[in-house]
Write a structure and sequence with these properties.
InterPro entries: Beta-glucanase-like, ConA-like_dom_sf, Glycosyl_Hydrlase_16. Keywords: Membrane, Transmembrane, Transmembrane helix. This protein has helices spanning 41-67, 104-133, 194-197, 202-206, 228-231, 387-391, 452-458, 460-463, 470-473, and strands at 9-10, 15-17, 25-27, 33-34, 93-96, 99-102, 139-145, 156-157, 160-161, 171-173, 180-183, 186-189, 192-193, 210-212, 233-235, 247-249, 251-253, 259-260, 263-270, 277-285, 298-303, 318-324, 338-342, 353-359, 363-368, 370-379, 397-398, 401-402, 421-429, 475-485. The protein is of the alpha+beta class.
């Protein structure tokens, strides 16, 4: 009986085109068996046996891998020498025949320690030269004031309107206890708003009021300025843009009472905080021997600005020292003789610092806390025969005229800083002389403006909140010491 022919074929899974959209190809998950009609049970059994054999073989290989023993690692063996052996580099000498030779290690030690000794020696020589070169002047204490009160045998109040043309500041100074007083901390010099410390109204500040500081029996003091016209009266006129000075403050000086010509001063003080405040520790000539300012000089021991140093370059984190000098105000050469010191991570309103000055016929310098931290130094006798030559004023023409030399005839290179000066302590506010540069820190007025005080006052809502309580917006002076050069009892220089 003829049998029907049947073919049985085992195939590897083949990729085939999917019937689902977006899946173009996929591999079949089963073994395809093709036949003419159907597969017999015997043939299916054979295929199953083949699969079992293949699976068993794979399992045996896995078991062999798991049972395999890892290769033994070789034990580390040190290459260090064992036992006693020669170490010639540790010996001081090496014998070569009949001669003994220093070892290389010994020479290294000799060179090293010799270099150290030479370095210390040179450093010591430099320190000695530096120490012996520092002047060791003798001084006599003129006065020391710890400000348990305001001693009128030492201090006088300067009562006047601002400071005239030299600064153009916006305050007027008084002897009112609101503006200067003492307590356990020392002397406080405190600026106050005129409308808060007088009976002058905000409207009168701007228009229709005249203030005469020469009137007798004034509660805030009678004007002490020699310029009764400019410095002792003021009036407000809204059309002209002139106003009553919007701030009051204090200025104390030793004029006519305590002066020095060469010597030393130390002031322990804490600077104020508040926008446009201008604290100053400075000196002016007692007799102005060489003419009006700046021909007779000015010594700025320490000045600062109350603005926050974090937002204003050169604020209360900076101290400035300078000498002002020149035959006329237009050629003041302070920029040739000034210095500045910045402090980091704090400012000079946070605690007390010592501001010092040493001044002789040969040199002048200022310092903070000790002579090691100098802010400014000038040697009078080095490089120039006179301050006139130092300033090169002979090359300058002002108003089509040559300048007059007021100093060289003395033959002293320190002139005009060869006369008696007195000490001043004050807190000014603003100014038009360039101390507060235009367009820096949102400055609300312009130096060239004829209405600068009014512009400053109209912006009080900006700077007013930066002024804290009196002990913060004022300069606090803990003590002042003034020395004259020379031993006590010696004739004055």
């Amino acid at each position: 009986m003829p049998t029907s022919s049947m073919s049985l074929t085992a195939q590897e899974p083949q990729p085939h085109r999917s019937s689902e959209p977006g899946i173009p190809y996929q591999r079949s998950s089963h073994t395809s068996i093709s036949s003419d009609r159907s597969s017999s049970p015997v043939e299916a059994s054979s295929i199953s046996g083949m699969r079992s054999a293949i699976l068993l073989k794979k399992l045996l290989k896995v078991e062999e891998v798991l049972d395999a023993v890892p290769p033994r690692q070789r034990r580390f063996k040190s290459a260090r020498l064992i036992g006693d052996y020669e170490k010639p580099w540790l010996e001081k000498t090496v014998t070569e025949g009949k001669r003994k030779k220093w070892s290389g290690r010994t020479w290294d030690s000799i060179i090293f320690w010799t270099s150290i000794a030479i370095g210390f020696g040179l450093g010591g020589i430099m320190c000695y030269i530096g120490f012996t070169s520092v002047p060791k002047n003798s001084y006599c204490l003129m006065f020391e004031d710890d400000f348990h009160n305001i001693d009128t045998s030492i201090w006088s109040y300067e009562i006047q309107r601002a400071d005239g043309p030299s600064t153009g500041s916006f305050e007027w100074t008084t002897n009112d206890p609101q503006n200067s007083y003492t307590d356990a901390e020392g002397l406080h010099i405190v600026p106050t708003l005129t409308v808060n410390s007088t009976n002058i109204t905000p409207a009168q500040i701007l228009n229709g009021y005249t203030l005469n500081l020469t009137t007798d029996n004034r509660p805030d003091g009678v004007c002490t300025s020699d310029d009764a016209g400019l410095s002792c009266s003021m009036y407000s006129n809204i059309t002209a843009g002139t106003i009553i000075n919007p701030v009051r403050s204090a200025r104390l000086s030793t004029k006519g009472k305590k002066t020095i010509k060469y010597g030393k001063i130390e002031v322990i003080a804490k600077m104020p905080k508040g926008d446009w405040l201008w604290p100053a520790i400075w000196m002016m000539p007692e007799d102005s021997v060489y003419g009006p300012w700046p021909a007779s000089g000015e010594i700025d021991l320490a000045e600062s600005k109350g603005n926050d140093g974090a937002t204003y370059d050169g604020g209360r984190d900076s101290i400035i020292s300078a000498l002002h000098w020149g035959p006329i105000p237009q050629v003041d050469a302070f920029w040739k003789t000034d210095g500045k010191h910045n402090i980091r991570r704090t400012d000079y309103s946070e605690s007390y610092y010592t501001y010092g000055l040493e001044w002789s016929e040969d040199y002048i310098f200022t310092y903070i806390n000790s002579r090691l931290l100098q802010v400014f130094y000038l040697s009078f006798s080095k490089g120039y025969k006179s301050m006139w030559n130092r300033g090169e004023f002979g090359k300058q023409i002002v108003n089509e005229s040559a300048l007059h030399d007021p100093w060289s005839q003395t033959g002293n290179p320190a002139t005009p800083f060869d006369q008696s000066f007195y000490l001043i302590l004050n807190v000014a506010v603003g100014g038009t002389n360039g101390y507060f540069p235009d367009k820096v820190g949102n400055k609300p007025w312009g130096d060239a403006s004829l209405t600068a005080p009014a512009e400053f006052w109209n912006a009080s809502s900006q700077w007013g909140p930066t002024w804290g309580p009196p002990e913060e917006r004022g300069m606090t002076v803990k003590s002042v010491k003034m020395y004259s050069q020379g031993a006590c009892g010696s004739p004055p220089t």
